[in-house]
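Protocol step 4 of 6: structure prediction from sequence.
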Amino acid sequence: MDWTDIAMTVGAVVGFIALTLGTAVFVAAEFSLTALERSTVTDDVATRGDRRSRQVDRAHRTLSFQLSGAQLGITITTLITGYLAEPVLAQFINPALSALRVPTGLHAGLTAVLALVLATSLSMVLGELIPKNLAIALPLATARLTAAPMIAFSAVFKWAINGLNGTANWLVRRLGVEPAEELASARSPQELASLVRNSALHGSIDADTAELVDRSLRFGELTAEDLMTPRVRVTTLGPADTVDDLVRVAADTGHSRFPVCHEGDLDNLVGVVHIKQAFSVPHDELRTTRLDTLVWPVATVPASLDGDAVVEQLAGAGLEVCVVIDEYGGTAGIVTTEDVIEEIVGAVTDEHDDESDEVTTDGAGFLCSGLLRLDELEDATGLRAPEGAYDTLGGLVMYRLERIAAVGDEVVLESLARGRDDRHDDDEESDGNGHGPAEQRWRARVTAMDGRRIDTVSLQPLPDDDTATTTGVDS
């Protein structure tokens, strides 16, 4: 081998290394820019404010153009790398094939294949996989290193990038999608909740904080009907009752606000009284002062009003309570500030509250309140009930019974697998009851009634081979 061949070989090796590094720069720039959040870039500009920060900001604001430039750069460097590497590698492969006594007629084909495989493997590992992993692990640091060469390359090949980008955008628009220059930095509540849960799972934030944020994000999905205390659990007073009656009932129940209505019917609501109003009445007039002289008007909201709007109504109401009206104009229940707080931070009890939990362990299963909402039921037990003409566990049990329940009634409930549509529109995969495939089956047994309402339900998981069916007692 003469000096010319040696020089060409060395030049080819140097060129291979340089082009592989160029591929690495383009790959690192591509992945770091896509991994960066807009807020991270903005904060870096505000904090450091140096030239590299501004370059990253500029590249991130023209993301589509920069990514097209990165793709063009990767394509160019990869093609040239393969062209340079093959003859260099062939010089080492041919002697190896001869030493292995491979027939001379096969050398050309084997050399081309092996050289291509080796060159591609080296280029992929050194030029793509390593910089990709670095960019994902350290997106901001990587972007600060690669933004300047990326912008310079894009400026030089702007004409080619614009042509390729324009063609691609034209095709995308033909598919009915408008191309975006920047990544969307806004996140839906569902996406934010998922981020919070993943952060807690990896230890970035503690579990209690994650639960609080998750509840807060899901709060807007709730309605006034979800937040309210149902009318069957509301203690009322009559307009002819006295302040003395107000004090006595407040002492018995631990509540401070009471709806005042005719004949105990919340549909005939007069207003609301607060225990604090009793302090403004002289002691000798407690038994003669009627509540209809103290009653305050109360705000009303439709049952479908979302949780955020309910909070606004409560904030504007002096008594921090509002009445929920159903679609037929009747009173469905009331919402208080405590109801709202409990949806975000969990159960809040004081010395007057009944501290019995809505869900307690019962052997291998649970003992649940019949008023437990279906979303609360899933969070507490894992039972994911299908949607239907019911909002609570008690409603679900009576829906399956098809009559008013009695103590001892039993039904089998199916917990649907996550990720499936629960609205009973998949007949070919139905279980015969209008439900999708079950993930877990539970036996629900009515253990206590409150009038015609199911008070408590015992939930016990069933083995896969259990063939239990709905049973009941004479009622």
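Step 5 (inspection) to follow. Residues 303 and 404 are 24 Å apart (CA to CA).
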